Amino acid sequence: MPHHTSSPVRARRSEAPTSPLFALGGETLVAAPRGTAAGPRRGGRAAPPRLGPYARLFAAPGTVAFTLAGLLARLPMGMFGISAIVMIAGTRGSYALAGAVTATGMAVSAVVAPLIARLVDRYGQARVAVPAVSLSAAGSLALVLCVRSGAPDWTLFAAEAASVTAPNIGGMARARWAHLYRGPAPEAEAARHTANSLEQALDELCFMLGPVLATALCVSLFPEAGTLAATALLLVGTLLFAAQRRTEPPVEPRGDDTRVAALSRIPGLPPLLLAFLATGAVFGALEVVTVAYADGLGHKAAAGAVLALQALGSGAAGLVFGTLRFSGRTESVRRRLAVCVGAMAVLMTLPLLASTTGNLVVLAPALLVAGMATAPAMVTGMTLVQRLTPPDRLNEGMTLAVTALLGGIAAGSAAGGWAAEHLGGSWGYAVPPTAAALAAGVALAMAVGRRSPGTASG
Q: Helix, strand or coil for residue 274?
């Protein structure tokens, strides 16, 4: 449950309670009582005391720069898939081929992404991100050339497989926030919670704007325009992100136990990844079912706008969620995850009920409200990943969560598509609440289960 912002700090017994200020000196976050002479080391600057949580978050030097660069690099997340489908289907005349190529990319990414993240943890963000994104850009350009020149179909699969080496920018941004505001202090915990909420809202923004931008480019210019624009944004954004060395976390020293141990052996992480998998199925099913539902009503062109409302509700709720303060213990994070995912399961019944009316005007606000539970669930899940994952493998842990999420999206898309095609009507909307209920069951089992001996309490 949310609690008050901080414990009172008294400079003298006769003074009223005040809350400590943050000051960033070098790589150290300093908490100092207000009104004292203490200040940030080496020229750092203190966060203004009366600003909101997001303004205080960006008081640390360099945070605005890496956030904007990361946003630029992440915008292609919502562009590559639909751009490839439009490009391949438009030039080769086969949606089956386009779907197979993009599915191959997702399958290869599920294997490659954790390996790239492990290299980031071992050698640092800049040293790995630059060559990884360069190889990814080369693969995307090769895909465009193969499509444009009429190369054999197998070359499309090879090029797509080479293009999935881009690093997980969202995970690296969250790792920077975790490093800047590290430690068990309540103020640091609150700053990390606000940062995770901000990053989730940025993800929602990218998935909301990316498909619209990609479709507009492919339709108004030429079929390859979306892929080319996404490649340019990814390359430039990642290079700018990697150039922000001031906020890059140092490579954590590795112990012998974490050098060879699989993250799947960490207590609590496997069921959490299962919860991410089921949550991804919610997103994948919701997208496919909504497109099919709108098409059945003769309003397929409106499907994108209706889905954007779900992302809008999620992003707005995520920003509000970031202003709340919670207890920092790991057990309370587990309980909060169960509550958030349970709320998502309940709210996902709203689109199911609204779809029975056969009216998009009724469905749209239902999706808006349903989306308000997804960001808090994702933010809390990522917070728990950061708690359970060793510091020297933080990027790998968050990338595994994203990989599980993408796997769930693929499974949910398949299940939602089957339900929409074979059952028809509003039955497809039964898939998202079912998947959400599965995620809620896993989260609840984690919350009520016996506390693992090796789990830190935060």
A: helix
**Three-state SS at 449:** coil
Which helix H or strand E contains 104, and what residues bound it? Answer: helix 95-123
The encoded tokens of residue 128 equal 């790995």
| Sign of the CA dihedral running 323, 396, 399, 338 | negative
Exposed, middle or buried by CB within 10 Å (0-12, 13-18, 19+), for 29? buried
**Which is nearest to 120 in space by CA: 390, 388, 384, 394?**
394
What gap in Å lies between CA 328 and CA 325, rounded to an integer? 9
- CA–CA gap between residue 22 and residue 48 (Å, rounded): 9
User: What is the CA angle 71-409-89, rounded to 5?
Assistant: 85
- CA distance readout (Å), 330 to 102, 273, 338, 383, 391: 38, 16, 13, 9, 16
Q: Which of 104-108, 148-152, 371-375 has the lowest mean pLDDT?
A: 104-108
SS3 string, 21-59, reads EEEEECCEEEEECCCCCCCCHHHCCECCCCCCHHHHHCC
Q: How far is CA 306 from the centre of its chain?
A: 21
Residue 289 reports pLDDT greater than 50: yes
Helices (runs of H) and strands (runs of E) counted in the chain:
18, 2
Is the CB of residue 18 less than 8 Å from the CB of residue 34? Answer: yes
Task: Round to whole Å and give the CA distance between 168 and 121.
Answer: 12
Residue 262: both structure tokens together: 């699989």
For residues 323 and 52, the answer to whether their CB atoms sit within 8 Å is yes
Distance CA 97, CA 413 (A): 17
For residue 29, report the phi and psi dihedrals to the nearest 5 degrees.
Answer: -90, 120
Helix (H, G, I), strand (E, B) or coil at 298: coil
* Residue 32, strand partner residues: 21
Q: Tokens 């203490």 sit at which residue?
A: 38
Cα→Cα distances 440→322, 351, 443, Å:
21, 18, 5
**Number of other residues whose CB lies within 10 A of the CB of residue 298:** 9
Query: Is 80 exceeded by the pLDDT of residue 330?
Result: no
The rounded distance, in Å, linking the Cα atoms of 164 and 207 is 18
CA torsion 446-448-450-451 (nearest 10°) is 60
Express each pLDDT in 293-314 by its tens digit.
887 788 766 777 787 888 888 8
CB 77 within 8 A of CB 208: no
Pairing of strands 28-32, 21-25: antiparallel
Q: What's the average model confidence in pLDDT over 163-180?
A: 88
